[in-house]
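Bug #77: duplicate submission created two jobs. Keeping one. Sequence:
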Amino acid sequence: MPKKFNYNDDFKLQMVNLMNSGKKITELVEEYGVTRSTLNKWKSDYQLT
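Kept job's structure:
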């Protein structure tokens, strides 16, 4: 079973900001070890309404 990590809100927001500033999800996956699906969920969760 894969290990589950708990990321704090500051880290999640930092990842979303990096994505919004043009950083590719593939680069974030490789650099930070967060899965693509997790990054997409965070992006959806932190969308400004």
